[in-house]
Each structure stands twice: as structure tokens, then as C-alpha cells.
Design a protein that fits this description.
Layout: E1 9-20, E2 24-25, E3 29-30, E4 34-47, E5 51-61, E6 69-75, E7 84-91, E8 96-106, E9 111-121
Antiparallel strand pairs: 1-9, 2-8, 3-8, 4-7, 4-9, 5-6, 5-8
Length: 136
């Protein structure tokens, strides 16, 4: 099955492109119309000279405001250098998601970060389904 990323995917900025000097959480995003299989992309640009590490995870919550917990499989590998690109995937159990830069470490940290969170929209068809086989 080919997913139409323009029309049939949920895509939000978990952490908009920014330079972090300390831990930061993205805002709550409603993924109630998305499949439970969720993906995230972390792009790290300039890594300041006094920055030692960055740890980012994707979290979920039932109400979008409390009890945030990391989604299994959606903790990015610790970043220690510039120009990193990572992709993770996990299965959500709750409706709301956010990105959380839980560790931004160093004497005077400065790191450029962007996080995208994606999921396929739920199929709203009325029966029939689809075939994974290619057409003849």
C-alpha cells in the first residue's frame, strides 16, 4: 500500500526549528485521527562547542496535559555531534503526543533542533478494504 503523505497523513512539528539552551517540551498534538503506529524524525543542526549531549523522546498522554510518558521505541539515540538525522517508530496507546528534549547538557549548551511527528490517518472507507498485491 502506498500512503499519500500529502492527504492521508498527520504531520506536526513536535519541536519547531529552534536553538535550545535547555530542556524543552513541544506542545500537545491531537493524533486521535491517526493510526497507532507513529513515526518521528529528529534533525540536529549546529551543536554548540559547549554542548555535550541531547536526548529527545516522543511522549503520549490520554488528556494532552498530564501524565506524559515516553512511547516505547520512540527515544532517540543520544546526540553528541552536529548534523544528525534520526527516525524512530512506536505504537501509541493514547491520543495526544509531544516531543520532549529531556536533556540538553553542557556548560552553556546551544543546539539547533527540529522534530516532526507523523502517522497515517485512519481509513474512513465503508468496507472493501484494499489489496497489498500490485495490479497486473
Amino acid at each position: 500500500m502506498i500512503v499519500d503523505l500529502v492527504n492521508e497523513a498527520l504531520s506536526v512539528n513536535g519541536l519547531a526549528p529552534q536553538t535550545l539552551a535547555a530542556s524543552a517540551q513541544g506542545s500537545s498534538k491531537d493524533f486521535g485521527n491517526g493510526e497507532i503506529s507513529t513515526n518521528a524524525i529528529l534533525d540536529v543542526g549546529a551543536f554548540g562547542a559547549n554542548t555535550t549531549s541531547l536526548v529527545v523522546q516522543i511522549e503520549e498522554s490520554a488528556d494532552g496535559s498530564t501524565n506524559w510518558a515516553a512511547i516505547p521505541g520512540m527515544v532517540f539515540t543520544t546526540v553528541t555531534t552536529s548534523n544528525q538525522h534520526q527516525v524512530v517508530r512506536g505504537l501509541r496507546t493514547h491520543r495526544y503526543v509531544r516531543a520532549n528534549a529531556i536533556t540538553v547538557a553542557g556548560t552553556t549548551p546551544s543546539v539547533a533542533v527540529n522534530v516532526e511527528i507523523l502517522a497515517q490517518k485512519k481509513f474512513a472507507g465503508t468496507g472493501g478494504g484494499y489489496s497489498r498485491a500490485p495490479s497486473a
